[in-house]
Amino acid sequence: MAPGNSHDISARHLWERELETLTADAVGPVLTPGAAGYEDEIAVFNPAVTHSPAVVVGATGPEDVSLAVRTAGRLGLNIAVLNTGHGPSVPATGDTLLITTSRMSDLVIDPCTRTARVQAGVRFQQLVTSAAAHGLAPLPGSSPTVGVIGYTLGGGGSATMGRKYGWAADHVTALEVVTADGEPHRVSADTESDLFSALLGGKSNFGVVTAMECALFPVTHLYAGTLCFSGADARAALESYRRFTATAPDDMTSGIAFLDFAPLPGLPAFMQGKPVVAIRISHVGQGDEGGRLIAPLRQAAPVLLDTVSVKPYTEFGSIGMDPADPAPAVEHFGLLTEMTESTVDALADTVDPHSGNRVNLIDIRQLGGAYSRPPATANAVGARDAAFAIFALTVVPPGQDVAAYANTGLELFDRLAPWLSKRKHPGFLSPADATGQQTQKAYDPDVYEWLRAVKTRYDPDNRFRVNHNIPPYETA
Known about the structure:
Blueprint: H1 6-25, E1 30-31, H2 38-41, E2 55-58, H3 62-75, E3 78-82, E4 96-100, E5 107-110, E6 115-119, H4 124-132, H5 148-153, H6 162-165, E7 172-178, E8 184-187, H7 193-202, E9 208-215, E10 221-230, H8 234-247, E11 252-259, E12 276-283, H9 287-298, E13 303-306, E14 309-312, H10 317-320, E15 329-336, H11 341-351, E16 361-366, E17 388-395, H12 410-415, H13 436-440, H14 445-458
Parallel strand pairs: 2-4, 3-4
Antiparallel strand pairs: 1-2, 5-6, 6-9, 7-8, 7-9, 10-12, 10-13, 10-14, 11-12, 11-16, 15-17, 16-17
């Protein structure tokens, strides 16, 4: 912003004055490129998408968020939010003010109403541990380090109890949000219900959610874990899993994954540079019933590892064994309408060692059950008739360009085209889906138009556009 004429000088003075005021008034840090702590503040879990905002504000509460949003409005900056950095979409660049929420970690459990109030920086392990002290449990994904609010605003497909209770978004009772004018709102099914419903599925398009209230469930233990098989037995394991899911009760939430990673420290010997099939199990109920249900899976092929047992809910992270260390990776998502014998053949051919497939992880999770039920209060989470969600991840080797791997994994979806839904889901969108056309596929046509109307009311200038963007209607 070096001054060159009177307009440039005026803009420079405005920038300096606004930044000075924001720095003085905000409790959290206000950082610009080159400042100490800037790089740490903008760091993400998946550095395939990296940020370089004009300014980053480390919010400590909703007051800091309001200050940051108002400042962005006066400076004409877009606004982006970074909760835990697990869900990359669009880079925040020099025309953006980035708000980070990791310092907002307040958490209150109400055992009488079986609810939790979480701020925007709370991660699932914190919530699960706190709720467990009261004999209660939320609906987490597979990773303990994922942020509760970002995950839930996308729908929230729980790896523990999703088929029993449905999408996490369906169990939210209130949201606290700062909209594009810097004003705080507390919204629910009874207060500003349009904004409440739009945020649940429409994600960060309408404001910065600073806190959320959600239901908890009286569950303390799971019959859960992983069955691992050699990649050579992929077809047998997958066919067994297909038959298993055809009759699985809603108490059973499960998935199957194909893993093929380079040798890494900490991996068991049978996974060191060798393809592996992992079936992930989470059953809400008695261990003997869960054991009876998965007996055919245990007999599908020689088992290399069996960790399925009765576990305290606090160990939910051991089911998926998600990586804990950041690494750049290319992601692609899709939805399957069904899984047939022909689907099994196509998947088995894809993961065959001679196929030339470069994908490191193919993860398929069964939906159906409570996922397919309409919510008690309307929200924007759709595609409820999908049978499975599928996810392909490719780790970008050190020193190599992410762009060179951008299309890796798409060959999988080409092979699955006969069973691939034309729809997408707001919780299963990758950076490659951050286009108007792809984002629109995540919503029913009438829902998408309704979301645009809500966007026009609360963010007519589209300040919240650094995301899977839902644009407002043009206003006069």
